[in-house]
Amino acid sequence: MRLARPGNVSGMPERRGGRPVASAEADAERAALVEAAFRIANERTTEWPERHSDGRPELYLCECAALECRARVALTREQYEAARGDPQHFIVFPGHERLEIETVVEVHDGYSVVRKPDVVRHIVVAADPRFTGVRDPFAAATALSEHVAARDARRAKEEP
Questions:
Q1: Buried b or exposed e, range 74-110, using 16+ CB within 10 angstroms
Q2: Could you tell me the pTM of the whole model?
Q3: What are the extents of the domains in the chain?
Q4: Over the stretch 62-90, which tens digit does the pLDDT of each residue have?
Q5: Burial group, residue 131, by CB count within 10 angstroms (0-12, 13-18, 19+)
């Protein structure tokens, strides 16, 4: 394992595709929601009895921020569990890191582990079945959606 350089930590909005990002925080939140959805799917498959029976690597969904991503990452159960020890860590296919909104904390052959910023911790923890106890992916997605809607309502009340 080798450590990688951190992403953008300035907190300043960046331009993407010729259009300004509304805010760095909003971009990080959208990415966290997508990554959380992929992680929910990976968590669900870890419970299948036919998985992990022989210790060989198995395929997991890339947990990157690209909604259209269908890349797979080959991991042993131990590798997956090591990355899942922190709710802000996500497993991504090489090159799928978004350095402007996340930090690469580990680089391995065939995958990287990225850390989401503290500003989106409330999202990734709310979507993590290991922290919420919600194992049904549909219930987890519903709970996450309700969490984000409540947060948005609070923010709307705070705005002048």
A1: ebeeebbebbbeebbbbbbbeebbbebbbbbbbebee
A2: 0.69
A3: 23-152
A4: 999 998 999 999 999 889 989 988 999 99
A5: exposed
